[in-house]
Amino acid sequence: MLEPLSSALRPTTLDDFVWQNHLVGPGGPIRRFLERGHVPSMIFWGPPGTGKTTVAFLISKAIDAEFFHLSGVISRKEDMTKIISRARTNFPGGRPTIVFLDEIHRWNKAQQDVLLPFVEKGIIVLIGATTENPSFTINNALLSRVRVYTFRQVSPASVFSLFQTRKDTILSRFEWVTIGDDCLRLVAEMGNGDLRNSLNLLETVLALSEGEVRRDDILRAVEKSLYYDRDSEEHYNIISAVHKCLRDSDPDAACYWIGRMLAGGEDPLYVVRRLIRFAAEDIGLRDTHALVLANAVYEAVQKIGMPECELFIYELAIYLGRAPKNNAVYRLSHMVHEDISKYGNLPVPMNIRNAPTKLMKELGYGKGYKYAHDYRCENGEVEKIDQDHFPKELEGRKYLTGE
Hints:
Elements: H1 5-8, H2 21-24, H3 29-35, E1 42-45, H4 52-62, E2 66-71, H5 77-90, E3 97-102, H6 109-121, E4 125-130, H7 134-137, H8 140-143, E5 147-150, H9 156-165, H10 167-171, H11 181-190, H12 195-208, H13 215-221, H14 233-247, H15 251-263, H16 268-283, H17 289-304, H18 310-322, H19 328-343, H20 358-362
Parallel strand pairs: 1-4, 1-5, 2-3, 3-4
Helix pairs in contact: 5-6, 9-11, 11-12, 14-15, 14-16, 15-18, 16-17, 16-18, 17-18
């Protein structure tokens, strides 16, 4: 059995690792830490296949540290305490200990708390890797003791450059195959920013080919996958993009992001619920039909389902993107909430209270109330009545300003 390409081509030094230059290149923070002989505990945050594990291993080689690789999925607190016990015998003065905890977000609060004193004292250098936003998944106490560094998706151009540089090594495993740069570029693009995935795709294509690799061979051999997590940060990033594109009257871009969500397996009803909210928040009184249409599309999506309902959602997004925008109702809601929070339970003016009993009438309920239909204009319309509607503390308050 041959070692997988993604492992065989793994860089052996930081100088060979060229995909996260903002971190490990000249002047990058990780590079500077190594040059100064001090490596702090860190969290590596980024999509899969961007080099988090590789960088952690290369750091350990650079400082001649003992390297322990744990998985946040299957490791236990006891596994960590054994490593810590070993590290304490080397601290201070002995070989440093690096604990690489992959998928650190899988550890609960109690497990993460075990790390705190040992990270703070430097007994271990913790390097946690996560695809989740650390702000939501890592304890604040642990976050305050580590540096967080963001790993970026690897560009197709960088992947293609690696393919070209290591082409001879790659093809030495598949001597019966030839592949042109156009096909290498296509495989690089299909990796979706995940270098490991790109290498695995290339290996699959080459293993299944019987001569010259053609574009159709690649498309038949692999299916492009999308990085989208319905329960993670990317979910919120993309739905935020939908809202902002529509708010900026750019339905083309909004439809792209909606398509990304649907292709990634998002519930179409969730998407439409967010569009219903948009219709009220950002269009509101300028086009009240927008809310009616959004609700109708929700019902249609319920009846039809995917993939046919995709057209309904795009049609709604186009309408909302082109519609005139007004957030008066949204601003009104914030002003109302501020007044409620500031003044609490203010009493209803007596004149507009209901008075169903004799006692309540005697107490002044409904006294002085003006019945609007008794004050019609000459054209028959009911005019605005000048009487108290607000509590005294809010007398004259106007929420609908700048419609």
